[in-house]
Amino acid sequence: MWQPIFMISGYFVSILGLSMLIPAAVDMYYTKQDWSPFITSAIISLFIGVSLYLGNRTKIEKISIRQGYLITTISWFALSLLSALPFMLTETTTYWADAIFEATSGITTTGATILTDIEKSSKAILLWRSLLNALGGVGIVIFAVALLPFLGIGGMQIFQRESSDLNEKLMPKISYIAKRIIVVYVILLTLTFGGLILAGMGKFDALNHAMSAVSTGGFSTKNASVGYFNNIWVEIVLMLGMIAGSLPLTWYLVVLKNRNNNSFRSAQVPFFLKTLCFYVLFTTCWLSFSNSDYNFWQALRVSAFNVISITTDTGFASTDYMKWGLFAQTIFLIFAVTGGCSGSTSGGVKSFRWQVIFAFFKKSIINMTEPSRILPVKIKNMNVDDKVINSVFIFVLAFAFSIVLLTTLVAITGVDYTTAFSAIIGCITSAGPGVGNIVGPAGTFAPLSDFAKYICAFAMLLGRLEVMTILVVFTKNFWRK
């Protein structure tokens, strides 16, 4: 049982170790300041990864559901821990809680940070943070497209039929999907990078922001985030990059091959884009009427960027929207929970699940007045079976329960409830910033206690792995033979 788990985990850890050589090379080119800690981190990670891979190498013909859960959980926890090594060895922070928080935030594309002065960090560290966003982004898409339907988490088994042309064996399927997703991902990164260069951003900043935008990670190289540049063209390119990353990456393949778009994964796209437009227009109108500092066009600019950033769960900020008042804080939490599309780099509940919930609600309303009428739950012209509906509602229940429990654990450390609640929302949805002065867009998570940071890091992994993937591993039934 354990051989495939350790073998695959070792493979992922080895990729992480090789990735550490990139910031090392960049640092040797620029400052020769932090290359040695990155080399040391790479050696440690490669030793662990290669040892696990070679020591457990075997031909994998079939992966059980239990092994699927363990591969996912063990791999992501291991990657988060080893990703923290460069932060400690470069003395970016001297506390493991801070290093693990920053690394987990990067690999889960959350974008929350404990760094109080980002611009003092070396180019190697800044690149490593963005590189973690990029690696985590493509990793989570492959996980969502290949493994989640197999595990049946949160209704994702509905997407199995869209891969019916693939080999039924899991590993060939993952290889088939991964190659195509990586190509699409690299194209989106390249286009965003080129757009930022044309918009006037420097090459290093453009590379970092392109990786953070498409991965919907939100790590910036500046303390003021995107607001530092005060460039509308930069904001437009980043908005397009964030939206691109929030659409299912497999959808691009469907569009390029001119296939029939009548699928559940494609049905999310118009729903998500319409929701996003509504959020932007609503916030723009509200802000232009309630705040005399903004006319309509100014309100549209700041609303569009920040609403798209939060709804796609990226976490960039062009201004401190907490200054807009309590109503803004409330709606931004709603935006964060909404999320992007399934099969994208975005977090949150996801558009597909909202479609299922709304369709079920509509059916229930009709049945209240016409109880004898038999109605299927439908998304467009496609029926959703009961197993998928149950899975979606179980996910939402577990998601809500996790928020309540984790918020309570953070609150007992002494922070106010608003800070605790918004911090967990920001972490579990991968949105990054919360609300308030401490964890808001103008603050950091540094003032939180070590215990609170570990809870927040766990919330990041919990939300990124669709909650049930981790929770099921802690049940007694999972370990019964």
Descriptive terms for the model:
two-stranded antiparallel ribbon; 481 residues; mainly alpha
SSE pattern, N- to C-terminal? HHHHHHHHHHHHHHHEEHHHH
**Helical region count?**
19
Radius of gyration: 22 Å
As residue ranges, the low-confidence spans are 163-168
Count of individual beta strands: 2
Q: Can you give the mean pLDDT?
A: 91
Distance between the termini: 11 Å
Strand content: under 5%
Category from helices, strands and their pairing: mainly alpha
Strand order across the largest sheet = 1-2
Give the fraction of residues assigned to helices: 55-70%
Structure summarized in a few sentences:
This protein is mostly helical and 481 residues long.
Written account of the structure:
This protein is an all-alpha fold. It contains 19 helices and 2 strands. It has helices spanning about 1-20, 20-30, 35-55, 65-85, 85-90, 95-105, 125-150, 170-200, 205-215, 230-245, 250-255, 265-290, 295-310, 325-340, 350-370, 385-410, 415-430, 450-465, 470; strands at about 375-380, 380-385. The chain starts with a helix and ends in a 10-residue tail after the last helix. It is globular and about 75 Å long.
